Hints:
The complex is a heterodimer. Chain A has 2 domains: 4-215, P-loop containing nucleotide triphosphate hydrolases (Rossmann fold), CATH 3.40.50.300; 221-306, Alpha-Beta Plaits, CATH 3.30.70. Helix content of chain A is 36%, strand content 27%. Chain A contains 11 helices and 14 strands. In chain A, the strands form 3 sheets. A 6-stranded mixed beta sheet of chain A has the order 6-7-8-3-9-10, with helices on both faces. Chain A has a 4-stranded antiparallel beta sheet with strand order 2-1-4-5, with helices on one face. In chain A, strands 12-13-11-14 form a 4-stranded antiparallel beta sheet, sandwiched between helices. In chain A, helix 3 packs across helix 4, helix 3 (95-105) runs parallel beside helix 5 (137-149) and helix 8 packs across helix 11 (289-299). Chain A is globular and about 70 Å long. Chain B has helices spanning 2-14, 16-36, 55-66, 79-87, 101-106, 122-143, 149-152, 172-203, 205-211, 216-244, 254-278, 282-299, 311-318, 321-335, 339-363; strands at 44-50, 70-75, 93-97, 112-118, 159-165. In chain B, 67% of the residues lie in helices and 9% in strands. In chain B, helix 3 links the parallel strand 1 and strand 2. By secondary structure, chain B is an alpha/beta fold. Chain B is built from 15 helices and 5 strands. Chain B has 2 domains: 44-165, abc type-2 transporter like fold (3-Layer(aba) Sandwich), CATH 3.40.1710.10; 172-363, no CATH class. In chain B, helix 2 (16-36) runs parallel beside helix 12, helix 11 runs parallel beside helix 15 (339-363) and helix 14 (321-335) packs antiparallel against helix 15. Chain A binds chain B through residues 49, 52-56, 73-74, 77-78, 82, 84, 86-91, 102, 105-106, and chain B through 203-208, 210-215, 366-369.
Amino acid sequence: MTELAIDVQQLVKRFDKKLAVDHVDLQMPRGKVWGFLGPNGSGKTTTIRMICGLLEPSEGKGYCLGYDIQSEQAAIKLATGYMTQKFSFWEDLSIRENLEFVARLYHLKDAKNLVSKTLDSLGLASRQQQLAGTLSGGWKQRLALAAVTMHNPQLLLLDEPTAGVDPQARREFWDQIHLLASQGMTILVSTHYMDEAERCDHIVYLADGKIITQGTVQQIILESGLVTYRSNAENIRELAPLLRQQETVEHAAYFGAALHVSGPDKTALYNTIKRVAPDINWLEVETTLEDTFIALTKRAGLNKEHL
Amino acid sequence: MWAILVKEMIQMRRDRVTFAMILTIPIMQLIVFGYAINNDPKHLPTAVQIEDNSSISRTLLSALQNSEYFSFIETANGKTKSDDLIRQGKVSFILTIPAGFSERLIRGEHPQILLEADATDPVATANAIAKFQLIIEHALAQEFKGPLSYLASQESATEVIILPHYNPEGVTAFNIVPGLVGVILTMTMVMITSMAMTREVERGTMENLLAMPVRPYQVMIGKITPYILVGAVQTLIILIASHFLFAVPFIGSLWILSIGVGLFILANLALGFTFSTLAKTQMQAMQLTIFFFLPSILLSGFMFPFHGMPEWAQVIGEGLPLTHFLRIIRGVMLKDTDFNDLAPEFMAIAIFLVVVGTLAIKRYRQTLD
């Protein structure tokens, strides 16, 4: 068995002339939970689709669980579970019927029993006859996760699994993910949410089809070299546009009612904020992952509309 | 209101495929059907059995040929052979001029001249039959000059006998109802399958299906098999109705018909599946279905006589499975045509099935590219 769950080199995907994925290298070990982060259109979904054999790379090569992503898609499909961005199960089938359909497709033994067990473990047993289309967002996600893990895949690819799901359901969903990871499943999950990213062992940050940085949360924050000041002052909203224009300020963003101002040079940053907003109290705080990503996206040369 | 109108125009312009289909298909169909459909079919294939070799017989033959209603393509000899020709659907008419016809004519004995017709499609043969006697009388009038002028004064020099086979009363339902089996199967089978796959794409379930370990042929067989049953039930219902409501005879073999129905359903399902790989939306799938359905009913011989169409339209018609299925079902039900005689029709549908089925599997993409 190969050490790496995913091993792709110089992966490129073009749609007509548009470059969606730009020479991506990714080596993901087994048994980890990795997060794919990046703004919309950064190539997360396209990369995942290439890894699981749903799209053919325009250039580059790669292996998923040791299988060639260009010629052994059938084997990859058997050994992975892929949950799409949009709910893609059959809304006019009941929860049980959806699961039974998947169980039969994977030729799982004793499908009926297995489906019953899956329903129990996910807390869906009481609603098994309900049509999937009538479920709420959170329940749909549970069903989708149940369906893609029933064949006990070695690798789970989750594409923005919690988009549009309420915080409680998101939390439960992540508990489930950690449970699966503790059982040895390798999981790659793409997300927009920083709190979700922070739950991953390793983060890969993509922008404009390229990997900008990767590592643990601490590594990424540390490597960014950012220092952050925070203020809760009442008139801070009026000053934000002015602060953003300053050279030493890499980004100024709201966190709730507070403004975070980050920059790479601590002294220069402090002098700037004191000059622009002398009457305001500033407090040095730990740079968050979100601060880092806003700054990274800016550094990657992306304009604001991507955010 | 203006805002909605503008929005609709923008959306219509953006969906280029649909827009192009809305504009081009009707024009194409207008041209094809406008020139192809003819309710006064001419050049109907006719076999001749001439036992009287005389100049009068030859005059009659050339008069019939010149009328353009009859096209002599076969020479029949003997009762058995001529029956076969009609049963096999090779000819629409058999013209018999009996031995001694001209001698008896000259003697003023009103000899008989016989026109046997395949009456399974009464519309196709009606005009030719109606004109037959007139053509004969006109032709003879030309002959009755000089020494034969005494015959011209007679009311009718010959006795024209028309013998309609298989549907002597000319009941239109006998022709239409079996045909409806084919038309209804074409419509429903093609439409259901063409929508089945595009629905998966539109609802986003296709990505899921593609991510699972299933091969194209498995998807195709899995998708179309339930509809084979649906088609069989439809056929059964129409056949029962045709017996009890329309009293359409069924004199042939149910077994041969079953093979025909099965093959025909498969051909249509495979075509629907191909459409679903071409269309991006259910709307487009629907349009493709209609695009196929119209020529199927108009050029197959269902609504208008097949032999009434110009040759190029008949060539198109031969490419449609419905054309061949109509020959099978009408042949079996009304004429007891046997398997050997229908073999070319079975073969034509089978070829269609293989070609379209291969195309469907080739077009079915295993990736989202």
